[in-house]
Each structure stands twice: as structure tokens, then as C-alpha cells.
Design goal:
Elements lengths: L3 H30 L3 H4 L1 H20 L5 H21 L3 H28 L6 H30 L1 H22 L11 H6 L4 H21 L2 H9 L6 H23 L3 H22 L3 H17 L1 H11 L5 H27 L6 H36 L12
Helix pairs in contact: 1-3, 1-5, 1-6, 1-7, 3-5, 3-15, 4-5, 4-7, 5-6, 5-15, 6-7, 6-11, 6-14, 9-12, 9-13, 9-14, 9-15, 9-16, 11-13, 11-14, 12-13, 12-16, 15-16
Length: 402
């Protein structure tokens, strides 16, 4: 694998750390600014919304410059946002810093996925994408726990200063290691937007929202579920999240390797198994050992679908994939927000802390249905094109096959 992938993975590590570390530092931030925990929670919500909105916006703005230069600008934006958070004198400035940092998130992963795929041979594209996303998954195993520990020991501002330092390392790595290839000739914003007329691109994004949403329906409420239902001490939740992160790392690497061989079968297996495991979590959540194993499996199965879904978007938007790739990153965060909201609804309805697992199972099963539908439509398109060619119809009348 090219060294350029290491630079992309370092940037992904920093982004993954800053996205999730705030969850462990909310009490400290709230106390420092003298605001309530729910109000401090806007630091999480604001970041997620910034990713959803920033992914298409920043990618569209970057269509006029090379991908390497855009990646460098995004890392610069990430650094500024985290420095702003680290020195924020009031809560509003802290929130602004979170939003600024989030604007780099979706576009970095979207453009980075295209760059990573272009660095390797066609049969290794999903593996290259997975290598970049390894930075995000390792952040949940190493960056988030360490960042939380540092924040609780030395102050949350130190954590965000360190994350800004990671951004500097990522920026230097991109500048030094990523090849400076010119932007594709003839590709304009209208070409990037045209990808969204392809129903297969839209189906892949819908699978992203529902499939990964299934994961976060359960994980968002993992603390009350594990303490009130499984009987874990509150201090054990950190290590349970480490298990979840280890599952993410393993699933991401395995998914990247297998997606280059059998993309759609991998999606069938990972989404179907995820739906089953989430449904079983309503039972295994009552036993400590079974719960720990289930959490690891949810991380593995959830992230096994990430490389194939990202590659699916790149394949279906071939020729102008950058914007579609970035929007698909926003779709992950949209799924997180949707599932957290739905999970909160069923808990508020009095169905218990394990009820979000059923929500997750339904979301994952819905993603599986869309995967089957997508494959059926693709076979139908291929069959139509074959019949047209066989009858000697002019090429311009043939149905395009994506």
C-alpha cells in the first residue's frame, strides 16, 4: 500500500478522535462554561449537522482545484476549528469551533476515498479505502479513550490542542506523501451533480443511512443499557467502547479485503448478520459476557459494510465521483442522527433501554432489502443492455450500465 494512505489515515485518526472524544468530556466542558449537560450536547449535534451540510458544500467549492490541495485546505480548516475549541472563552465560541472542524469531515473522507482508490490497482480499491478508514476506527480504540483520559486529568482544552497537533501532522503528511495529480479534465460541478440522477447512487446512500444507523441506534444508548440492564459499573463503559472500536477495526479491514472480491455478497452477509445480532442484543444485554461479545460483533459487522458501500458509490458515480463520495460520508452521520432520535423515542415511550436494539435491527434489515433491490435493478439494466446490443440497436439508444 502506498505511503500516501498513511497520511490519509493520520488525518482520519484526528477527525475520528475529535468527533467522538467530546462525548466523554461533556461534563467537564459543561462545568467549565457553567451550562447544562443537555446544552453541552449541542457540541455533538452541531458537529453532526456540520458534517451533513459541509460534505457537499466543501466538495463543491473544491471542484476547481486539485484534490491534494483541497485535502490540505480541509486539514487546515480542521486545525483552525480545534484550536478555536481549545481556546474558546465562552460556550458559543466552542460550538463555533466544533462546527468549523466538522466542515472538513465529510469532504476529507469523500475526497480521500477517491484519492485512496486512485492510488492502487482497480482490484485493490476497496482495500485502499479501508486503509484510510482504519484511522477512523483506530481513533475509537486509542484516540478517544486517551483523549478522554487526558481531558479528565489535564483539562479538556489540552485534548483539543493535541487533536489540533494531529491535524498538523496529517497536513504535513498529505503535503509530503500524496501525489499532486491535476483535477480531472472536463469534470465540472454539474457533472458531479449528475451522479445523483443515478438511482444506484441514491440506493447506496440510503443503505448507508439505514445500515450504519442500525449500529448507532444501539451504541448511542450503550451506557444506560450496560449499567442498568447488564449490571456493569459506569467505569466499565469505556472498555466496552474499546471492544466496540476493536470490532470496527477488524470489520473495516476484513470488509475492505472482501469487497474487492465480492462486493454485493459482502453487503448481504454483513447487513443481514447485523440485523440478527442487533435483535439478539435485546437478550444478550442482560448478561455481561454475552453483552461484551455482542458489542464487539456490532462494531465488526457495522464497519464491514463501510468500504463496500463507499466503493459502491464510487463505482456507480464513475467519472465524477467526488461529490457523491463526500455526500455518502454525510449519510453516515445522517444515519447516526436518525437512529439516535428513533432510539430516544422508544425509550421515552417506556419500552426500556434495550428497545433501541430493535430499532437498529429494523434499520439494518431495511438496508438489506435495499441491497437486494439494488442488485436486482442492476441485473435488469445489464439484461436490457445485452438485448439491445444483440438486436443491433444503435449505441446511443442503449441503456447505460453503471
Amino acid at each position: 500500500m502506498p505511503l500516501a494512505l498513511l497520511a490519509l489515515a493520520i488525518g482520519a485518526f484526528g477527525i475520528g478522535t475529535t468527533e467522538f472524544v467530546i462525548m466523554g468530556l461533556l461534563p467537564e466542558v459543561a462545568a467549565d462554561f457553567d451550562v447544562s449537560i443537555p446544552l453541552a450536547g449541542y457540541l455533538v449535534t452541531g458537529y453532526a449537522l456540520g458534517v451533513v451540510l459541509g460534505a457537499p458544500l466543501m466538495t463543491a467549492l473544491g471542484t476547481k482545484i486539485s484534490r491534494k490541495r483541497m485535502l490540505m485546505l480541509l486539514m487546515g480548516l480542521f486545525i483552525v476549528g480545534n484550536v478555536l475549541s481549545a481556546v474558546a472563552p465562552v460556550f458559543g465560541v466552542m460550538l463555533a469551533g466544533r462546527v468549523v472542524a466538522s466542515l472538513a469531515h465529510g469532504a476529507f473522507f469523500g475526497i480521500g476515498s477517491v484519492v485512496a482508490a486512485d492510488l492502487v490497482a482497480p482490484q485493490k480499491k476497496a482495500g485502499a479505502i479501508a486503509m484510510m478508514f482504519t484511522g477512523l476506527t483506530v481513533a475509537n480504540v486509542v484516540g478517544v479513550p486517551l483523549g478522554t483520559l487526558v481531558g479528565q486529568s489535564l483539562g479538556w482544552r489540552v485534548t483539543f490542542a493535541i487533536v489540533a497537533g494531529l491535524g498538523v501532522i496529517g497536513l504535513l503528511g498529505v503535503a509530503k506523501l500524496v501525489p499532486d495529480t491535476p483535477k480531472p479534465e472536463g469534470v465540472r460541478l454539474r457533472h458531479e451533480l449528475a451522479a445523483f440522477r443515478n438511482v444506484q447512487v441514491l440506493l447506496a446512500m440510503a443503505m448507508t443511512v439505514l445500515g450504519f444507523g442500525g449500529v448507532f441506534a444501539a451504541i448511542t444508548y450503550i451506557t444506560p443499557m450496560m449499567t442498568d440492564v447488564a449490571g456493569f459499573a459506569g467505569s466499565s463503559v469505556t472498555w466496552l467502547l474499546v471492544l466496540f472500536g476493536l470490532g470496527m477495526v477488524a470489520g473495516n479491514l476484513i470488509g475492505g479485503k472482501l469487497a474487492d472480491r465480492a462486493l454485493m455478497p459482502l453487503l448481504y452477509v454483513s447487513l443481514g448478520a447485523l440485523a440478527v445480532v442487533l435483535a439478539l442484543f435485546t437478550l444478550t444485554a442482560h448478561n455481561k459476557i454475552a453483552a461484551a461479545v455482542t458489542i464487539t460483533l456490532i462494531g465488526a459487522l457495522g464497519f464491514a459494510s463501510v468500504p463496500p458501500l463507499q466503493k459502491r458509490v464510487l463505482d456507480q458515480a464513475a467519472g465524477a465521483p467526488t461529490l457523491a463520495s463526500a455526500v455518502n460520508i454525510g449519510a453516515f452521520n445522517l444515519g447516526n442522527a436518525l437512529s439516535a432520535w428513533l432510539g430516544g423515542l422508544v425509550i421515552a415511550a417506556g419500552l426500556g433501554y434495550t428497545a433501541p436494539n430493535w430499532v437498529g435491527a429494523v434499520l439494518a434489515a431495511s438496508a438489506l432489502v435495499l441491497a437486494v433491490l439494488s442488485a436486482a435493478l442492476e441485473r435488469r439494466q445489464s439484461g436490457s443492455a445485452t438485448r439491445i446490443v444483440a438486436t443491433g440497436a444503435p449505441a446511443e439508444q442503449a441503456t447505460p450500465v453503471h
